[in-house]
Amino acid sequence: MSFSFxxxxxxxxTALSLQNILWALIGCFIGTLVGVLPGIGPASGIxxxxxxxxxxxxxxxxxxxxxxxxxxxxxxxxxxxxxxIPGEASSVPTAIxxxxxxxxxxxxxxxxxxxxxxxxxxxxxxxxxxxxAPLLADVAVVFGPPEYFALMFMALTLIxxxxxxxxxxxxxxxxxxxxxxxxxxxPLTGAARLTFGFPKLxxxxxxxxxxxxxFAISEVMVNVESRITAISQKIGSWMPSWADIKxxxxxxxxxxxxxxxxxxLPGVTPSVTTFVAYDLEKRVSKTPERFGHGAIEGVAxxxxxxxxxxxxxxxxxxxxxxxxxxxxxxxxxxxxxxGLQPGPMLFxxxxxxxxxxxxxxxxxxxxxxxxxxxxVGMWARICVIPFYILGPLIVFFSVLGTxxxxxxxxxxxxxxxFGVIGYFxxxxxxxxxxxxxxxxIAQMMEMSLGQSMLMSQGSIxxxxxxxxxxxxxxxxxxxxxxxxxxxxxxxxxxxxxxEVD
Amino acid sequence: MKRTxxxxxxxxxxxxxxWAGAANAADFxxxxxxxxxxxxxxxxxxxxxxxxxxxxKKNLGVDVSIQYKIGGGGALCWSELVGSPPDGYTIAGHNLxxxxxxxxxxxxxxYKTLDxxxxxxxxxxxxxxxxxxxxxxxxxxxxxxxxxKNPPGVVTVGGSGSSSANDLGTAMLSKAAGIKLSYVPFGGxxxxxxxxxxxxxxxxxxxxxxxxxxxxxxxFLAIASEKRMDVIPDVPTFKxxxxxxxxxxxxxxxxxxxxxxxxVKILADAFDKTMKDPEVKKKMDQNGFKTxxxxxxxxxxxxxxxxxxxxxxxxxxGRMKK
Lengths: 501, 322
Description:
The complex is a heterodimer of chains A (501) and B (322).
Chain A: H1 5-15, H2 18-36, H3 42-53, H4 58-83, H5 92-103, H6 107-140, H7 145-156, H8 159-162, H9 167-182, E1 184-185, E2 192-193, H10 207-225, H11 242-263, H12 270-284, H13 297-312, H14 314-320, H15 326-337, H16 346-349, H17 351-380, H18 387-406, H19 409-427, H20 433-455, H21 462-465, H22 467-488, H23 493-497
Antiparallel strand pairs in A: 1-2
Helix pairs in contact in A: 1-17, 2-4, 2-17, 3-4, 3-15, 4-5, 4-6, 4-15, 4-17, 5-6, 5-13, 6-11, 6-13, 6-14, 6-17, 7-20, 7-22, 9-20, 10-18, 10-19, 11-12, 11-13, 12-13, 18-19
Chain B: H1 2-18, E1 33-37, H2 44-60, E2 64-68, H3 75-83, E3 90-96, H4 98-106, E4 117-132, H5 140-149, E5 156-160, H6 165-177, E6 182-186, H7 189-197, E7 203-207, H8 209-213, E8 218-223, E9 248-255, H9 261-276, H10 278-286, E10 290-294, H11 296-317
Parallel strand pairs in B: 1-2, 1-3, 5-6, 5-7
Antiparallel strand pairs in B: 3-9, 4-7, 4-8, 4-9, 4-10
């Protein structure tokens, strides 16, 4: 893929036609709506709306699809902040601080920072994509199974900072998450585990049902028990203050970097990078004890990473023709509908098309912020709705969204079960985030470990002898040791002030 | 009291939603059909589905939603399929030999081969052994010699799935050449290819479409078909190089057990029209697929024939369960 101003300008010219702007607008709006429903993420959103796009000329169709994609990502964060229902796994870290802010009447600033952070990350990510795609793609293939495992393992050590003071509880939560993820089939061989002979359990436990249960349902239960009248009593201003924004510049830039580079690796999804970015901010912050209680950086970071990772996902797609996530594949399907050969040849055979897509992604980013900032006030008002109406509505949408994943009532029961589990976890102050992180990471981690062992004929040292995986493992182990040491020093100010979500 | 009433009302609304309508053969299909793909995006199953998508929607008259259910080399997806309602609205791409070998090798793969109701078999792709352009092997002979000189397991061969065509192909080569290749399964061709690009495995036992896509990045040592494929005439067959290996994957779609024959026929006809669509045919050929046109009865006959063949091969390789 070679960069050429000519092509880019041409791309913009196509993307900026009045017609295409209109389609981008519609796409963003519909995407946001779809993303707001728990359980329906960008992939399903695009899939559902794909037929709409077939009546359009190819370029317009792709522009609309990209806009839907961005919109859906944003929608997921909205519900995470306003009612503590993460739209998909990548919105979970946003919910941690975002919901706290909502309870304090600051849902407006939280939502706005989401949009702003996403915009900054998306724009920077696109610049990276435009200028550096071929180089970056080559970097990404250096990651093989041992590197993936080491990266995932390091991500798990984030548990330590996510657990705050209650390290043991955090580890238990993580273990529960890993156990849940193991129900079903072994990712490498397909052998059945923890199914107790129930064929239904072979399909495993869908982690969206788990997340919706753990967050939304248990939250409703807790709220009902404490008889709150509404999530927040007052609404502050709906825009963040300049001080807030200044505070978030660092997080936005760092999370973009982290999100983008990790997102280059096929298989690393926003769900992972948002956690990594959140943790990075917490470690880098001078006041980490604010995280978990409504720190605005805690919203800016995951949102930036989210968008950066999604953008980075296009690099393997354009350079190798390999879609790294289901939502990418849907977009690829869209490309194929128009007679484009998937694969490394795409740039050579149809450069003008690809550049039009890239240009439209810039437009999509702008569109999002233009569309959503004014609507922030509207979304924020949801928090003041009396809970006896809002609560059942949350349950309704949770059931709807969870059912729509696979149209199985089974998933709804799983959601309910995890709602109860989540309720007890909250009662006994067990952190929920580690469980979610573990569930999301488990399959890839296990598969990579299996593949690495096959590559090394059973020797675990392969993880340490290769430079990249060795570095990650070292970081991970150092993290663990430090975490345990901090726990031992029970009078350490950091640990004592860290609380659980 | 008012609050409880409102709450209960809303909850009833939710339950009512869940009680969605059932399907009826006379006017099938009347809503969206879910087409499950059992492997990573970017692999052959995915590419084929994308090629079929448009024509399929036209021939079925409804929307087709492509979903991914990745894991266990396809076993996750197929075991889910057999548990899905047999109303014709859920189908899944399925592969031979995977769906024959997995139950044989694993004992409990979550499904039985004959549980999958055959709808249509639309393509086949022979195995191809490939290495990176910068690798020291130029011919299959170089590769085999290297494997002989080194301890078992040093030469790693990546592929899509376990108990799959790639897996079996690697095992058959090991046996025929008297070498010990270590097979590393990936979630699909889409994730196996980056592994070879990055040099994490020595070679890849993959499928013919990859020859077309990665022409300028890989060298292709041999293809496991009866004779050379027209679209890639410079890849020698294993047969002509002295190894009697003809193996690859057949791909088709299947429905849950108990799906009424009438619905299966409607689906099969739609796929048949789709595969005969000139646009589809062109793309299939261009991409290195061999199109097949097998309806439900023919597909079932193929499955039974292959099952008998594989039983013998698996016993020989010592991989039968129990």
